[in-house]
Specification:
single chain; 157 residues; mainly alpha; 0% strand; elongated
């Protein structure tokens, strides 16, 4: 008898992606670990860092409802938001909103997110190239091959 229980699938499939969970964890970590801003300039920096951290998860969620090419595009936008977070993290450390340890933790989160998104993009591209190969060998094209969404990808990202 198999004792493993299957995890129920979420109504919003992006919630099953580990990369989405990691991105929301990072946003929560930022909120809990950034120092208290002392003036408007620091408040603007904190707001910008928070906004960029939210954008990582938001673009993963938005892209997951699209076809694979569009999902890849949204994942690349998430990677841009990660680079923004790197810049804001460095500035936050320079002005004392992050100590060295928290700066390093932020960078580790962002490096892991970058690797995970990169792996997911490669996975999506491999799926597309396999479909192109299948398309070229079939006499009649398959409509679904260009509009597949998150349902057909591995959620271990």
């Amino acid at each position: 008898m198999d004792n493993t229980q299957e995890k129920p699938v979420s109504f919003f499939r992006f919630e099953d992606l580990r990369i989405y969970a990691k991105a929301t964890d990072y946003s929560t970590w930022i909120i809990n670990n950034i120092g208290q801003p002392e003036d408007d300039m620091q408040r603007n920096l904190v707001n910008s860092l928070c906004h960029s951290s939210y954008d990582i998860a938001l673009n993963i969620a938005e892209g997951s409802s699209r076809n694979k090419n569009q999902f890849e595009h949204y994942l690349k936008i998430s990677k841009s938001a990660i680079r923004e977070c790197i810049v804001f993290t460095a500035i936050a450390a320079n002005i004392g909103l992050f100590d060295e340890e928290r700066c390093n933790q932020s960078r580790e989160y962002l490096m892991e997110l970058t690797r995970m998104i990169g792996a997911l993009i490669i996975s999506l591209q491999r799926g597309s190239s396999r479909r192109r190969d299948e398309y070229e060998t079939e006499e009649t094209p398959n409509e679904e091959s260009n509009t597949s969404d998150i349902d057909s990808i591995d959620t271990d990202f």
